[in-house]
Amino acid sequence: MSSTKGIVSSFVEGAPPGELADVIADIKNLTTNSPSLLRELGPAFEKYNEEQFATVKLPGSSQLVIVSEHSALGDGRYFDVESSSSFAFDHATQKASAVQSHVLEGAQADLVKSTLKALGPYVKEHYPNAAHGVYPIENDSRIAIVIVANKYSPNNFWNGRWRSLYIFDPSSGALEGSVKVDVHYYEDGNVRLLTNKPVNASVSSGTGAGIAKEISAQEKRYQEELNRSFTSLSEGAFKGLRRQLPVTRQKIEWDKVASYRLGQDIGGGSSRR
Amino acid sequence: MSVDPFDSALDLLRRLNPKHTAEHLNNLITIAPDLTEDLLSSVDQPLTVRRCKQTGRDYLLCDYNRDGDSYRSPWSNQFDPPLDEGGSLGGVGSGGGNEGAGEGAVPGERVRKMEIKANEAFDVYRELYYEGGVSSVYFWNLDDGFAGVVLLKKASPKGGSNSEGVWDSIHVFEASERGRTSNYRLTSTVILNLATKGATLGELDLSGNMTRQVDMDMPVDNDESHIANIGRLVEDIELKMRNLLQEVYFGKAKDVVGNLRSVGSLSEGQRERDTQRELIGSMQR
Fold first, then answer.
1. What is the pLDDT of residue B85?
2. Where does this protein have compositionally biased stretches of type Gly residues (chain B) (predicted)?
């Protein structure tokens, strides 16, 4: 990881939601001695876009489509089931082009379409700004379900991303995946929330409606637990680190601070930890 | 228009995961070695604890009590490992912009006396506010006064709970003495790393740092009042920062998650808002 390219790639992959362009601008300015470096970062951009579920509008469309390893066709092309199209994606500029018709066929085509349809109302009801996609994977043996929601507010110094990925196995009914939340706040500081919630569930009906219902239940339970954990961290670990005021509920009388030690043994001696 | 590479490095550190600042810092120094001194002296990292061999008390390590590979204990005023004879030629790095630690990192007699008093005072402060943890204060001479750093570190006890946390406070100040008043310029950084996990929750990491500055003139009668003034400044800014951290870590972060996904149904929420608006509208008519 000590090569310049390796280091710079790690910076790209660590870019917070909505801040890839800022990170690239910083990298450019720090590596003016090797101007060809950015052109060598193709693999890092590709990894970032596929892992972060980059979204893009196809030319002439207002619908967002998702870039992920599950929708990859190779040669920098990706497909989208909803719009029955495939497109070329430029990983450096995050722009789509060369749209072609892509009609889904194969053993899972019906399940993919019914899951996509069942998921639509759920996503619309709970995500103000999200894209979702369903794709047949692993030689048509399973389907991948992706939901990604972004909210960027750089003027207020915060950005956030929610990513859900589920793999459904029609032969066993297993629904496995993860939900990841990434929030960055950077006014006079740098604060980052990163979560990872593994999901192991099953959908006995094996239908698109059943899958959407299970995802809805899982995500509701997760977000409620996440909200509770903010409270318990605030009341627990945070409170235990530093008090808001001393036990006396009064600020220190600094003119008399030397007498605190003489007057009462407050245990500031040698036997800590 | 060209941007100073140093500013780009700081911007990058403000964006990349704050939990791994040390790693990012090393990487930046590798690709931009010219920035090494500037970055090391301006980027705050979590503090390391060491036990003083002479007194058995814990103290905190930072650039301001460092001389080469040795660190000075505020309790004994001794370096560990001890400096070579003639070690006063040492200094930090290659004489890079650290006035305090440069001259063998030992303050003059008057300033060391204040440093001893400040360590006693902030030991009281630490116990009252942190009920544990470690504190250290280091002073150094300036041409028109003195400067110093107040350090506090507390880790939440492990075991029992699934949650853990570490708090690091770094308060750097310069005191310019102007007769019966003194001007204090204070830059305070708190590094707060929290993590928790559970079966339903999975893993959650909430880490970061925030910085605030204050500039204030305060009356000075004697050297004791310097300690009291610095104490009040640090106490006030830590209270403000604690409240700010609470707001950002537990309020703002939760709000942003709520902006990404709504627990309740969005259309129902919209219907309720519409009904409310109609109700208010009809009452105003």
1. 59
2. 87-105
Residue range B57-106, pLDDT digits in tens:
999 999 899 988 999 999 999 999 998 755 444 444 333 334 444 444 68
Which residues fall within 8 angstroms of residue B56, CB to CB, at 6 or more apart?
A: A270
Tokens describing residue A212:
């959407």
Task: Kindly state the DSSP code that residue B84 receives in the 8-state scheme.
Answer: P
Which 3 state secondary structure label does DSSP give A133? strand
Cβ <8 Å between B263 and A224: yes
CB atoms within 10 A of CB B89: 9
Residues 6 or more apart in contact with residue B140 via CB below 8 angstroms = B64, B99, B100, B101, B103, B105, B107, B111, B146, B147, B148
CA distance A77 to A87: 5
| pLDDT of amino acid B1 | 57
- What residues are paired with A153 via a beta bridge? A158
DSSP state of A15: P
Distances (CA, A) of A170 to A60, A80, A205, B150: 35, 21, 10, 61
- Interface pTM (ipTM) of the complex? 0.92
At B244 the three-state DSSP class reads helix
| Nearest residue in B to A193, CA atom | B206
When pLDDT is averaged across residues A174-185 and rounded to a whole number, the result is 98
DSSP state of B201: T
A1, A151, A219 member nearest B256 (Cβ): A151
Q: Is A116:A208 a contact under the CB 8 Å cutoff?
A: yes
Q: Tell if the CB–CB gap between B12 and A19 is shorter than 8 Å.
A: no
One-letter identity of residue A39: R
Chain A residues whose beta carbon lies within 8 Å of the beta carbon of residue B134 = 272-273
In Å, how far from its chain's centre is CA A181?
5
The set of long-range contacts for B115-119, using a CB threshold of 8 Å and a minimum separation of 24, is B115/B74, B115/B139, B115/B148, B116/B74, B117/A258, B117/B223, B117/B224, B117/B227, B118/B148, B118/B150, B118/B227, B118/B230, B119/B74, B119/B75
Q: What is the pLDDT of residues A28-38, one digit of tens each?
A: 999 988 888 88
Helices B266-284 and A109-126: angle between axes, nearest 10 degrees? 30
Kindly report, residue by residue over B171-217, the tens digit of the pLDDT: 999 999 988 999 999 999 999 999 999 999 999 999 999 999 999 99
The whole-number pLDDT of residue B270 equals 86
Q: Containing H/E element for B26?
A: helix B21-31
> What is the per-residue DSSP string for B32-62?
-GGGHHHHHHH---PPEEEE-TTT--EEEE-
Within the 202-241 window of chain B, which residues sit less than 8 Å (CB to CB) from chain A? 202-212, 224-225, 227-229, 231-232, 235, 238-239
- Cβ atoms of B154 and B50 within 8 Å: the answer is no
